[in-house]
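quick one, 269 residues, struct below
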Amino acid sequence: MTSWLRGVWRMARFVGVLGCATIDGWRCRARPGFLEDPHQRANYLQYWARRFLKCFNLTVTCNGLPPRTGLIASNHTSYLDIVALADTMPCAFVSKSEVSRWPVIGMLTSVAGTLFLDRERKRAAHEVAESFAPVVGVGLPVCFFPEGTSTAGDRVLPFRAALFEPAVSRGWIVTPVAVRYLLADGQAAKQAAYWGDDVFIAHVWRLLKTEQILAEVCFGEPLEGFESRRELSTAAHGAVRGLLGLPGLEHAFDPVRKVGSADFGTHCE
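---
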């Protein structure tokens, strides 16, 4: 099958899954108690994430243990990060507020329990951080992308410290996680990355034409016992870099004092 025919077939399937997820989302919103139950919303997200993975012929491998609670700090290269991470565990995500206003996608992410952050408001990070409590309190992890934007996957931008505040003040663990991609033809992840001036529809079409995409999700050891959000964000940043095999880990945090015996210098193979 040529890449163009493959893309047409998968686009039809993608639109079909998107339509079914939308109908299911409206039904779930009308179900008594659904919107008040983070676990049901996370299960909705995981169910449909796995079906979107099939549209892209995306295979996810998981290294390490997904956490059952607390916060998850991840690098960010693409919207595929969300479906890849949701495939590994039920969880809630933090996203920029603009997403809530996107046609169809805004409704789907809202039903899935996404916590929206208005980056233009000074207190927004604090308010969203407070909204973590009801989710973490029922034993569901909250995943966020503290870089604040996506990259080509060849770097990890500095983490924004504000979202780490509730972990420090409430004693929650933070699990670092790294997501990276490889195409079936051996090319690295830049084609899968959605960043810079990429146009969403064009990017989706490019990925749908790709024969196969491999996603590797690597969970690190939990971080806890920090006295400041800045110190914790720096440690998480260093851990994510280490999981990706990027240099400079030794300057980011003290793995013996803060993490334990985990060797973050060895990235996922």
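The longest strand covers residues 174-183.
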